[in-house]
Amino acid sequence: QKEVEQNSGPLSVPEGAIASLNCTYSDRGSQSFFWYRQYSGKSPELIMFIYSNGDKEDGRFTAQLNKASQYVSLLIRDSQPSDSATYLCAATNTGNQFYFGTGTSLTVIP
Amino acid sequence: GAVVSQHPSWVICKSGTSVKIECRSLDFQATTMFWYRQFPKQSLMLMATSNEGSKATYEQGVEKDKFLINHASLTLSTLTVTSAHPEDSSFYICSALVVGPGELFFGEGSRLTVL
Question: Fewest CB within a 10 Å sphere: which of B6, B16, B57, B80?
Answer without folding.
Answer: B16
